[in-house]
Amino acid sequence: MDVLAAQESFFLARRPRKDSPHTTAAYRRDLAGVTAILAEVAEVSAAELTIGHLSSANLRAAFGVFADSHAKSSVLRAWSTWNQFLTFCVAEDLVPGNPMGAVARPKTPPLVPKPLRGEDTPELLLEAVAGGARRARDPWPERDVLVVALGLVAGLRSAEMRGLTLASVVGRPGERRLHVVGKGNRDRSVPIEPAMDRIVEGYLASCRRRFPRARFDRGSALLRDRHGEPIGRGGLEYLVRSCFRWAGLHDRVPSGANLHALRHTFATRLAEDGASASEIMALLGHASLATSQNYIEATARERRAAVAGSRTYVSLGRLPDGR
């Protein structure tokens, strides 16, 4: 059996799991990326690659090449995807055993929250973006501030923002909430306070002014690009990155975080303000309570480090021993 056909059978078998579209897309990227390298290793085209080519040696060589141009987290995710695919192949009697056990994988890095640096950074960012700091070809501050707010006060991931529709905003005035479909198609409800409600309404009013002839039904995407089309993944990432830059706050964004730094800031502030791990889990859509607990523990470590680093404590440490 050829590898591409086996991969399609793998996705067909996963359909009852109801994976979200972005989960399926990530799986496909991981399989396709390594498949292309495997074909080069085996000196055949991807279409000619068969299950027989999936040896431990070939997979080790392919993952070695893949690792040269990808981050540790990407290699780990791809390893996991291929492990699941080949476990499926074993169950279907396509291969006698799973060769991924012979392929090295990076150690799982500990989750370290990456919120924006600086106590006043979120407020400065919101003020700058709302004031039109982002110098775009076609400025749209109402949309830009909504995107930033969705990260900072609702904790949405990129895919979750792009998955929002007009029907995602539910409830009566004063009791509004966002219906969010997260990873693994897990639904959650995020409260919208009046200040955020005004941001949403201001954005929708700007849409009506920009696209007077457009007719958007309840199932239409909430976030739009300047042409009135649903905003894409790259466009959303660029929007947030340019907001940081034009606000003069790009140096306060942890490396590799960008849009996700907004979500981490939301979670970190929840922990700082006394939210429990279960409350953080419900609001951010974490699959594991341990993930939510990390924010509380990280906040506690930072508080202890801040106290230990105070000038008074330094002076106290220099006092002679009174014994």
UniProtKB/TrEMBL annotation:
Domain Tyr recombinase, first and last residues per copy: 111-308
UniProt-listed PANTHER family: PHAGE INTEGRASE-RELATED (PTHR30349), TYROSINE RECOMBINASE XERD (PTHR30349:SF90)
Keywords, ordered alphabetically: DNA recombination, DNA-binding
GO biological process, one term: DNA recombination
Record-annotated Core-binding (CB) domain positions: 1-90
Name by which UniProt lists this protein: Site-specific recombinase XerD
Pfam family, one: Phage_integrase
Species annotation: Saccharothrix violaceirubra
SUPFAM superfamilies named among the record's database cross-references: DNA breaking-rejoining enzymes (SSF56349)
An annotated Gene Ontology molecular function: DNA binding
Domain of life: Bacteria
InterPro entries: CB, DNA_brk_join_enz, Integrase-like_cat_sf, Integrase_catalytic, Integrase_recombinase_N, Tyrosine_recombinase_XerCD
